[in-house]
Design a protein that fits this description.
Elements lengths: L4 H33 L1 E3 L4 H24 L3 E8 L2 E2 L5 E2 L1 E5 L5 E7 L1 E2 L2 E2 L2 H20 L13 H9 L14 H10 L18
Parallel strand pairs: 1-2, 2-6
Antiparallel strand pairs: 3-4, 5-6, 7-8
């Protein structure tokens, strides 16, 4: 039986469609797994939980697959009203290891000292904790760290010392400074012994 080009094209399209469908289904399953099984917000109003979800979801999507590859499993990320240490001091987060295994539970505090923490702050703490777990599991060695070049206070102080710019693009001086500068640039000229020239003194 002869095969025709049309039959091969249909087979190729069917195989390609099946592969695309498998990829889409796997991504949807992974997204559902990350969303439904790991992130649990137990406190906050509905708008607060929505803002926290938007801030925490990118961190979860970024770090949890990396931790899964290293054999570290984060069972749940739980947002609770407050956290405290063994001495009663307030905590922003804690990581709990289950029975010496490679499974962990991360708890995040929604409030600190009576004040509600911002979603970006909570997401930053979660990213630091997950990064710590990844470095510990993958035996990552930090070979370089870069500190800020200047502090915020120094930047604000230098900004206050900048001179205002006038319309002509030149820096304008305060009234007293302009007077002092004008007085310093005055050069006295002595009268010529020959008298005025070209009737300029009349």
């Amino acid at each position: 039986m002869r095969s025709y080009p049309g039959d091969l094209t249909a087979v190729v399209l069917a195989v390609a469609g099946a592969l695309v469908l498998m990829v889409v289904l796997s991504r949807l399953f992974r997204w559902y797994r990350l969303r439904a099984l790991r992130l649990c917000l137990l406190t906050g109003t509905r708008p607060q939980r929505a803002a926290l979800w938007l801030a925490l979801a990118p961190v979860v999507r970024e770090f949890l697959p990396l931790l899964d590859k290293t054999g570290q499993q984060v069972r749940a990320i739980v947002l609770v009203p407050t956290l405290s240490g063994s001495d009663g001091e307030p905590l922003v987060a804690e990581v709990e290891q289950l029975s010496g295994s490679n499974s962990f539970i991360v708890r995040l505090a929604h409030r600190l000292g009576g004040a509600v923490r911002q979603p970006d702050e909570v997401a930053g703490v979660l990213a630091e904790d997950l990064l710590y777990l990844y470095r510990h599991a993958a035996a990552v060695t930090v070979v370089r760290q870069t500190a800020p070049t200047a502090s915020t206070d120094a930047g604000v102080h230098s900004a206050t010392l900048r001179k205002p710019v006038g319309r002509n693009g030149l820096a304008t001086l305060p009234r007293n400074a302009a007077q002092n500068e004008a007085e310093e640039t005055v050069i006295p000229f002595k009268a010529s012994p020959l008298g005025p020239r070209n009737n300029q003194g009349s």
